[in-house]
Amino acid sequence: VRVSAKAVYSKYSIQPASPMNFGAIIKGIKKTQTIMLENKGLLNFKFRIHQAPKDASANKSSKQQESASSTTKRSMPRKSSFSTQAHLNVGMFTVSPCSGSIAPWGQQKIKVDCLPGTEGICEEQFYIDITGR
């Protein structure tokens, strides 16, 4: 009996390259930008987006952290649990969808809305967690 296998890991790309900056926005007016998450591997993978811990900016030496914006940041920490939450609200930002599954060579558009309710600068950090990377 001949047996064989090929060990692989998830391959992906995240566009746009960092940073994502919404610039100046009029209070009460929503502005939207899109992140494209693409599966470049041979296996399905699940993803989940969640808010970064408040001390995440102190951990910039981590090889897994990737800056995505001056208003939002994303990186790839290891996590094993996944939720089915449709959107994530943090400060003046809403991210959707914030979880899902992507087939090989498939893509998922992730919408980031910014709706400023108060004057001032708002910066938040988000993480995109991908299984099997």
Any chance you could write out the topology, listing elements then pairs?
Layout: E1 12-15, E2 31-39, E3 45-51, E4 65-66, E5 74-75, E6 88-90, E7 93-96, E8 99-102, E9 107-114, E10 126-130
Antiparallel strand pairs: 1-2, 2-9, 3-8, 3-10, 4-5, 6-7, 7-9
Indicate the CATH class of the domain at 24-53 and 83-132: Mainly Beta
How many helices does DSSP assign?
0
Q: What is the rounded Rg?
A: 16 Å
Order of SSEs, N→C?
EEEEEEEEEE
CATH structural architecture of the domain at 24-53 and 83-132? Sandwich
Mean pLDDT: 79
InterPro entries: Hydin-like (IPR033305), Ig-like_fold (IPR013783)
GO cellular component, one term: axoneme
Region (Disordered): 54-82
Protein name: HYDIN protein
Task: Kindly summarize this structure in a few lines.
This protein is mainly beta and 133 residues long.
What attributes characterize this protein structure?
single chain; 133 residues; mainly beta; Immunoglobulin-like; three-stranded antiparallel beta sheet
Walkthrough of the structure:
β6 (88-90) and β7 form a beta hairpin. The protein has a domain at 24-53 and 83-132: Immunoglobulins (Immunoglobulin-like). 0% of the residues lie in helices and 36% in strands. The chain is mainly beta. Mean pLDDT is 79; it is low at 58-83. A 5-stranded antiparallel beta sheet has the order 1-2-9-7-6, with no helix packed on it. It has a 3-stranded antiparallel beta sheet with strand order 8-3-10, with no helix packed on it. Strands 4-5 form a two-stranded antiparallel sheet.
